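Figure S4 source data
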Amino acid sequence: MKRIVALLCAAMMAITLCACSGSDKELVMATNAEFPPYEYHEGDAIVGIDVEIAQAIANKLGRELVIEDMAFDSIIMAVQSGKADIGVAGLTVRPDRLESVNFSTPYTTAAQVIIVKEGSDITTPDDLVGKRVGVQLGTTGDMYVGDIEGVVVERYSKGHEAVQALIQNKVDAVMIDSEPAKVFVSQNEGIVTVDEAFTYEEYAIAIAKDNTELLEEINAAIAELEASGELKAIIDKYITAE
C-alpha cells in the first residue's frame, strides 16, 4: 500500500511540474483590440502591429503567444496582478503607469491628434476650451483632455464609440492616437483631423515590476528585431509613409 501511495504522489508531482512548465511556455498578452492598426479584429482573429511585434518577440523567446482581449483600462492591472505577462496595446510610457509596471524599450512613436467634423471651428488644440471632447477611457488622450481647464470630457469604452458620438453631434471633438485616427477618418465621411498634433509620445510594452528577467528578455528581442529590420517591416506593413 505504501508503495502505491508513493507512486501516486510521484505521479501527481510529475503532473504538477508538467502543468507549471507548460505555463512557462506561454507569453500572455493583454490588449484591447479596438485600436487599429495596432490591434483590431479581423474576422475571428486579432491582428495588427502590436500583435505581430508580440508574436515576433514570443518566437524569439520560444513561447506561444496567447492574447487576452480586455477593456483598455484593465490592461495595466492585468499585468500588475500576473493575469498577463505583458501589456501591448499602444501603451504610452507615462509617469503614472511607471508607478505600477515597468516598460520595455519603446518600439515606436505616436501622436495625440484631434478629430472634428468638417467645417468645425476647432482648428488648434487651444480651441478645445469650452467644448465637449470624446476620449477612450484610460487612454493618454483621456489624461491630457482631463487636464485642460474648461473642457467637458465624455469617456467611452472604445475609440470608435467616441468617433460615433462625434458623428452624432454628441461631442465636438475626439482626442485619440494618430494612426487609429487615420483609420477612423478614412472609414467615416465628414470628419477630419486637426493639422496640429496635441502631443508626441512613445509606445512600449508593459511588464510587471518584479519580472525583471522578462523585461531584459523582451528588450533584447526588441533590439534584435530593430537590428534585423523586422520591426520596421511590421510597422511599414500597416503604416505607409505619407
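Figure S5 source data
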Amino acid sequence: MATKRMFSNNIIDKDAFVDLSPSAQLLYFHLGMKTDDDGFVAQARKIANLIGATNNELEELIDTGFIIPFPTSKVFLITHFLINNNVKNDRYNKTDYQKEWAIDYSGS
C-alpha cells in the first residue's frame, strides 16, 4: 500500500461531496488514505470505529455513490479513486481483490 494519497478538487468541491455530513466527509478522506493501488479498502469498519464514525456514515457514502460495497468479501471501493490518484506503473501493486475488480460496477 502506498504511503501517499491525493484527493482531487474535481471531487471534493462538488455539491454532492459538500452536502455530505462532516463525519462522512472525514470518513471518505480516511478511507481514501488506506486504499490499495486500485482503490479497495478492506478495513472500512475498523477505520470508521477509530475516528468515531458509525454505520450511518458508511451508508451515506454508499447511498451517494462515493464508495461501492462488496458484501461477500467485506471490502469497499472508493468510486473516484482513479480521479483522485495516479499511481505510477513502477510503483503500482495490483489489488488482491481481482474478483471484485472484474465486476462491472459502472452501472451499465
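Residues 38 and 95 are 6 Å apart (CA to CA). The two ends are 30 Å apart (CA to CA).
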